[in-house]
Amino acid sequence: MCIVDGIIVRIHRLPFIVDAIDQGMAPDVIASNLYQSLSTSITDSASRKSSTLLIMFSVGTIVGSVIFGYLGDKVKHRRPLLMFSVFWLVLSTVLFMFGNVLWMLQLARLIQGLSNSCIWIMGMCLIVDTFPTNKVGKQAGIIVAAHSFGFLIGPPVGGGKLNSCPMHNSDAYHEFVALFQTTGYKIPFILCMALNIPAFIMQLLLVENKKNPSEYPSPGRLDDISELAFSTAGSEGSIHDDQSIETEKGRCMTYLKLFQHNRLLNATLMALLQGFVTAGLENSLTIRLASEWKYTSGQIGLIFIARVIPTFVSAPFAGIVADRYGSKVVVCPFWLLSAAAMVLMGIPSKSTIGGIVPLVALIAILGFSMVAAMTPVQSEIACIVRSHNEGGEGDSSMSRSYGLFNIAYAVGGIMGPLTSGYLYSVIGFFWLCVIMGCTLLLFAPYVFISIGGRRVNVS
């Protein structure tokens, strides 16, 4: 499901559709004619309007995180909500396919953000329900790697984002659009809807672990079940009464209580900073590559692959190590490495030794280290919630906690491009990288102090 989500999120960033609408053209004309007519000039107006699509996606993510974070903690089974997200993805795809005015595209991105938030929140909660806490990191790493894979293959399949902005007046850029150029405008969207079919079937076959707890006892509870089999009737009644009291206490977790825990605040801060740095760098580095090296959008897209490919290794690796030795062992070194790579990224230029090679290497290091530092946070949230529920077995506010993580990342995704775009025009790319790297260093002490240690087997 995360692979499908990653593809669809990337495949819909089609600025030439906005430019076609802006110029009064129908976006569903013959693909080759549209591509040739728009590849020479994408207006500043289209650039600004395309940026609203990114903002609407973040707004949808924020709103959806609040809604589904609340619903996920109230409903008994989370699978129906996850299946409902497939419907929203298909709806957003249909709006993109037939949209011929800007508001339809914006609505599609808003719905897409709602669906994206539901997929992440419900998906992580299902993993936490299924695996013990000291195994969640590995599974989260697999999920992050799968999502990165979707982000990697999305642009060449259906299209990329606009790599120009009002502050940069060079020729407009365009990404190679494989299916769009060869088969027509609507084919990429039909592919998106087709990809949802196997995802929906797998969700139908999914059996939630918490739906039938007696049939699927987790390993950490086998000893408890054996002891209960030899207990007396009176002691059984006492145990069940105590468990009922503990469950009721566990359900009293609220947003206020969640914000009182430094570890959860730290997790949301890390998500905010990751969204800020990632989105800000994507915006400014694109302009840098186009202005300094005169790269086309296709060449820029290839360079950005260097940031994605290392995550296939770093995400599972970080999850496994965090499960065994704790989050602190992973987060601390890779957070510092991310800050260092961010600062050094402003140095390479066309005139420096090695040309583009050092910059590509730094992009790869940043992609590896940032994802490695953030992957343990997914399982960290599960530890936080369970440790503050009575008995260590409840999951009250689990969905809301992951919702807060999503909200923080979306807010960072809005702040990043706005801040980096302004700073780039005022102080240049080098000092922008220094500021962003120093921002990571500024919050490093709080991150290191608040991040958790070794995990225990809590099922």
TrEMBL record:
GO MF annotation, one: transmembrane transporter activity
Residues passing through the membrane, by range: 53-72, 81-104, 110-128, 140-158, 187-207, 301-322, 329-347, 353-377, 404-423, 429-449
Membrane topology recorded in Swiss-Prot or TrEMBL: Multi-pass membrane protein
Record's keyword terms, sorted: Membrane, Transmembrane, Transmembrane helix, Transport
Protein species of origin: Rhizopus azygosporus
Major facilitator superfamily (MFS) profile domain: residues covered: 8-455
Major location (coarse): membrane
Keyword Ribosomal protein: no
The protein's name in its UniProt record: Major facilitator superfamily (MFS) profile domain-containing protein
Entry similarity comment: Belongs to the major facilitator superfamily. Vesicular transporter family.
Subcellular location(s) of the protein: Membrane
One family name in Pfam for this protein: MFS_1
InterPro entries assigned to the protein according to its UniProt record, in alphabetical order: MFS (IPR011701), MFS_dom (IPR020846), MFS_trans_sf (IPR036259), MFS_Vesicular_Transporter (IPR050930), Tet-R_TetA/multi-R_MdtG-like (IPR001958)
Top-level lineage group: Eukaryota
GO cellular component, one term: membrane
